[in-house]
């Protein structure tokens, strides 16, 4: 009997200990595990559309850089978390450029240097690079394919997926310009850094001035309107919302939205539909990441406006970020008066009081292109 009672007490203690252990484990995973989008490539399924490269923004720029390349592997000590150069640091102007990121490909094109590109990822979809050699994907670049293009400059975003290839290229004495991805601040830095290394700094400054002006127009327009509770959706199955740390969240806030997922632990979080309903957003905005999924309006509340956005401005932090901010401004505040219409992309609202609408115009990046 004594043995039985002692055994029972031990069993209870063991069970309590295991419960505590697994409880702590689940808590840790919920806090630290990245979302599905953080681990996935950008595309219409995820990589092609580009939510990686931009892949996806999430952690701080400095932590992204540390995760991709250790300080010992960086050719020189960096004083900031901005762009940095690995490998060959000669100052000669590059004529053969390889881009390992759809977003950076758009930067090069926006700077009027598309003709210098000799290699891009299979997910770079701008018509200007349709005939250019493909060197793999954002997460799986082919070292052999890159070498075959004989580049004198490679532009890349730090990623665990391209880390080995980038470091090997640097060891082979190729110039690799690494540009952390993120939101508006990171894109400003990218425009200046890429234009400087391409030898067209004046174009970079001109494009940056236009970019800043467009961003400021959105901020001013949003400041005169009431804040709208909103959800920015990047996937239906599972339901994925932009959260803190994502460029989508930055732009949504800039355009006058209050993100209902602002308490998420990760930039792109799986979000329970029940919680979305309970949060009762005034506006639900879906990005092209939901392409191919059920596009029937989400059944939330009768007063909820459902907006579906097309195009890629909201899928990658490129020079089109300013256009994406305009799109969100119009989605949150339809009919708002601005000097220019919304971006190159179109949007169509779903709701009992609104008809399907299409609004489009030239983008900041496209409008700034010039021949070299």
Give a written overview of the molecule.
The protein has 372 residues and is of the alpha/beta class. The protein has two domains: 61-208, Nitrogenase molybdenum iron protein domain (Rossmann fold, 3-Layer(aba) Sandwich), CATH 3.40.50; 226-367, Nitrogenase molybdenum iron protein domain (Rossmann fold, 3-Layer(aba) Sandwich), CATH 3.40.50. It is 36% helix and 13% strand. It is built from twelve helices and twelve strands. It has helices at residues 2-32, 36-39, 61-68, 102-110, 143-148, 163-171, 184-197, 201-223, 247-254, 273-279, 321-332, 364-367, and strands spanning 84-87, 97-99, 117-119, 153-156, 175-178, 228-236, 239-242, 257-259, 268-270, 283-286, 305-309, 347-350. Strands 6, 7, 8, 9, 10, 11 and 12 form a seven-stranded mixed sheet that branches. The chain has a five-stranded mixed sheet with strand order 1-5-4-2-3, with helices on both faces. A hairpin with a 2-residue loop joins strand 6 and strand 7 (239-242). The longest helix is centred in the first third of the chain and has 31 residues, at 2-32. The termini are far apart.
Task: Annotate the secondary structure layout.
Layout: H1 2-32, H2 36-39, H3 61-68, E1 84-87, E2 97-99, H4 102-110, E3 117-119, H5 143-148, E4 153-156, H6 163-171, E5 175-178, H7 184-197, H8 201-223, E6 228-236, E7 239-242, H9 247-254, E8 257-259, E9 268-270, H10 273-279, E10 283-286, E11 305-309, H11 321-332, E12 347-350, H12 364-367
Parallel strand pairs: 2-3, 2-4, 4-5, 6-8, 6-10, 10-11
Antiparallel strand pairs: 1-5, 6-7, 7-9, 11-12
Helix pairs in contact: 7-8, 8-11
């Amino acid at each position: 009997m004594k043995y039985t009672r002692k055994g029972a007490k031990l069993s209870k203690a063991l069970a309590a200990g295991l419960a505590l252990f697994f409880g702590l484990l689940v808590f840790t995973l919920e806090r630290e595990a990245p979302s599905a989008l953080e681990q996935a490539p950008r595309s219409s399924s995820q990589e092609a559309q580009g939510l990686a490269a931009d892949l996806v923004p999430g952690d701080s720029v400095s932590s992204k850089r540390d995760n991709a390349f250790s300080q010992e592997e960086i050719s020189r000590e960096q004083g900031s978390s901005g762009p940095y150069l690995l490998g060959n640091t000669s100052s000669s102007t590059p004529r053969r450029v390889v881009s390992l990121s759809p977003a950076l490909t758009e930067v090069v094109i926006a700077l009027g240097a598309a003709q210098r590109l000799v290699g891009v990822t299979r997910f770079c979809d701008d018509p200007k690079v349709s005939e250019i050699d493909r060197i793999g994907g954002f997460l799986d670049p082919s070292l052999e394919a890159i070498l075959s293009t004989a580049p004198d400059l490679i532009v890349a975003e730090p990623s665990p997926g391209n880390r080995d290839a980038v470091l090997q290229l640097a060891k082979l004495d190729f110039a690799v310009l690494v540009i952390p991805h993120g939101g508006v601040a990171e894109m400003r830095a990218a425009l200046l850094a890429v234009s400087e290394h391409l030898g067209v700094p004046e174009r970079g400054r001109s494009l940056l001035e236009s970019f800043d002006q467009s961003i400021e127009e959105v901020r001013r327009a949003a400041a005169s309107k009431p804040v709208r509770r909103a959800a920015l959706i990047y996937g239906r199955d599972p339901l994925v919302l932009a959260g803190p740390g994502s460029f989508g969240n930055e732009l949504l806030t800039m355009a006058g939205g209050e993100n209902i997922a602002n308490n998420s632990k990760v930039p792109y979080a799986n979000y329970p539909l029940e919680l979305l309903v309970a949060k009762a957003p005034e506006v639900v905005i879906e990005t092209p990441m939901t392409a191919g999924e059920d596009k029937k309006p989400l059944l939330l509340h009768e007063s909820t406006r459902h907006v579906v956005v097309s195009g890629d401005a909201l899928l990658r932090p490129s020079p089109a970020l300013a256009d994406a901010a305009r799109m969100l401004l119009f989605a949150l505040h339809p009919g708002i008066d601005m000097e220019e219409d919304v971006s190159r992309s179109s949007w169509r609202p779903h709701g009992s009081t609104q008809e399907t609408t299409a609004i489009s115009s030239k983008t900041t990046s496209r409008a700034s292109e010039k021949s070299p």
